[in-house]
């Protein structure tokens, strides 16, 4: 049946309900139970035991299925906790109540009341009593396809409400996401970390290598940027004596969209005074294994066909050794900037004349190594060229005390011993400014306020950022970051139509 015909029939039912004096959207009901609570209490009882139960239960939810037998019908009701069946009998409901049922549709939200029993097939059911059926919200639009599924990815992301209605497994992902964040928060608080909030709108974008979103404050007459990271503010708090802080925050980066990137995403950043990046490696193992045990009861999981073992200790490898061992780059090339740049170009990597050696090395690492890091791996000792906020290594000043955690070929966390020398930090910012002048729009700007904070004395500190969305992807076996963000950023329908029109025109011209 065409959708327009379905809508027409639903509107006819709405008119009939109004003529009967039925309020389509009342707000005066109270719900006593959830589907899960009823199933937990009575699911294992047999027919004889249920006959002795005299309690009356009230339940509300969305009608997901109807089996109509004329003078009786079964309806499946879904609430936030699950699905339960209700039995509607004309001789119980009466003419008025059964007439109301006949004007209901799949998708309507209803309230039912009655005792529980089990059908001949053993299904727990509410036997709806007289005056035990009420309409709470009339759905004008029908659910997509058949109620049991919505598979069109574009519709699922654009109309998440429909996705959540018809795909229970999607709701399970976001329940698990909430649980993961709750566990992370508990883990941090148990270790005496203080949860804080820092500005989302900042006068300059700092704390990460990324392009920001820019806006303008009319009253103050100044440009502002949506934060790309909370790092520089959190480290001000360390300087101020808050020795252990964390923030579960939204960041915004004006970058491309992919299965692992969304311009708006969630991270947990934390900073600990009197700690090093090596301390944070141990803490990261503890945190992720703590989450895994509580979420799945195990330290093994499957992600997109890969069996992942989270049992510590996790492998540690330097950037240099990883490029040699897994990237197949001869060790001699790493010490020759020109040869390394030529090698990168042969791999199809765009290299500028102004790119420092460390940046070229990391481009080769990303191209040849990242995808091979399936099991949990700490990659350490990054070049100083790509680490403007990290502490230099005491033995080799060309590298920094930093690690990134990789699982299934994707970066999950980034951490380092913090640079707390204001003189060195100024030089790093100046180096970044030169890269901006050379065309790198992701390079840091100078932040005099932050340097001023360092000049007050920041204790030796280690800090880390963990990608919450990617962690949730891992624990829910989700292939795309859009599957773990309730409302991912999408192109507007108008933009899609315009793009489609351009493609069709080009094909016609061709």
Domains, number: 2
Strand segment tally: 18
Strand order of the largest sheet: 6-10-11-18-17-16-15-14
Structural class: alpha+beta
Terminal Cα span:
38 Å
User: Which percent range describes the beta-strand content?
Assistant: 15-25%
How is this structure best summarized?
This protein has 510 residues and is of the alpha+beta class. The chain has 16 helices and 18 strands.
What does this structure look like?
This protein has 510 residues and is of the alpha+beta class. It has two domains: 3-142, Nucleic acid-binding proteins (OB fold (Dihydrolipoamide Acetyltransferase, E2P)); 166-326 and 369-500, Bira Bifunctional Protein, Domain 2 (BirA Bifunctional Protein, domain 2). The chain is built from 16 helices and 18 strands. The strands form four sheets. Strands 6-10-11-18-17-16-15-14 form an eight-stranded mixed sheet, sandwiched between helices. Strand 1 (57-68) and strand 2 (72-79) form a beta hairpin. Helix 7 packs across helix 9 and helix 10 (319-325) crosses helix 12 (357-368). The chain is elongated. The chain starts with a helix and ends with a helix. The mean pLDDT is 92.
Keywords:
510 residues, alpha+beta, OB fold (Dihydrolipoamide Acetyltransferase, E2P), 2 domains, elongated, BirA Bifunctional Protein, domain 2
């Amino acid at each position: 049946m065409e959708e327009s015909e379905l809508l027409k029939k639903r509107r006819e039912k709405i008119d009939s309900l109004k003529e009967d004096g039925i309020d389509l959207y009342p707000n005066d009901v109270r719900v006593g139970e959830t589907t899960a609570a009823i199933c937990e209490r009575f699911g294992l009882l047999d027919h004889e035991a249920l006959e002795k139960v005299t309690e009356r239960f009230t339940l509300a939810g969305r009608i997901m299925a109807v089996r109509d037998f004329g003078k009786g019908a079964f309806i499946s009701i879904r609430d936030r906790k699950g699905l339960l069946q209700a039995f509607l009998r004309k001789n119980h409901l009466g003419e008025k109540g059964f007439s109301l049922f006949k004007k209901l549709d799949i998708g309507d939200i209803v309230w039912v009341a009655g005792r529980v029993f089990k059908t001949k097939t053993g299904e727990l059911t509410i036997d709806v009593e007289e005056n035990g059926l009420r309409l709470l919200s009339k759905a004008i639009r029908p659910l997509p396809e058949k109620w049991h599924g919505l598979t069109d990815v574009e519709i699922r992301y654009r109309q998440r409400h429909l996705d959540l209605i018809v795909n229970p497994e999607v709701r399970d992902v976001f329940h698990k996401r909430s649980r993961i964040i709750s566990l992370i928060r508990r883990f941090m608080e148990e270790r005496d970390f203080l949860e804080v909030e820092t500005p989302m709108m900042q006068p300059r974008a700092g704390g990460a290598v990324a392009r920001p979103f820019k806006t303008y404050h009319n009253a103050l007459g100044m440009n502002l940027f949506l934060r790309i990271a909370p790092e520089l503010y959190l480290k001000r708090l360390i300087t101020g004596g808050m020795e252990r802080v964390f923030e579960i925050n939204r960041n915004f980066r004006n970058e491309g969209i992919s299965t692992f990137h969304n311009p708006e995403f969630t991270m947990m950043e934390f900073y600990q005074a009197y700690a090093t990046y090596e301390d944070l490696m141990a803490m990261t193992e503890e945190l992720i294994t703590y989450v895994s045990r509580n979420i799945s009861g195990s330290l093994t999981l499957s992600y997109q066909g890969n069996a992942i073992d989270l049992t510590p200790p996790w492998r540690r490898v330097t950037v240099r050794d990883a490029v040699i061992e897994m990237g197949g780059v001869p060790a001699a090339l790493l010490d020759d900037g020109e040869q390394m740049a030529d090698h990168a170009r042969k791999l199809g990597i765009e290299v500028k004349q102004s790119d420092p050696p460390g940046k070229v090395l990391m481009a080769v690492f990303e191209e040849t190594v990242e995808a091979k890091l399936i099991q949990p791996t700490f990659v350490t000792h990054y070049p100083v060229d790509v680490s403007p906020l990290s502490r230099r290594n005491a033995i080799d000043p060309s590298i920094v005390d930093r690690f990134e955690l990789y699982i299934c070929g994707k970066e999950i966390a980034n951490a380092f011993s913090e640079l707390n020398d204001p003189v060195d930090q100024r030089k790093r910012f100046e180096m970044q400014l030169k890269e901006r002048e050379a065309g790198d729009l992701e390079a840091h700007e100078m932040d005099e306020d932050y340097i001023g904070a360092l000049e007050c004395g920041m204790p030796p500190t280690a800090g880390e950022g963990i990608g919450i969305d990617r962690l949730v992807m891992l624990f829910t076996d989700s292939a795309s970051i859009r599957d773990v963000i309730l409302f991912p950023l999408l192109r507007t329908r108008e933009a899609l139509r315009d793009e489609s029109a351009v493609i069709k025109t080009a094909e016609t011209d061709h």
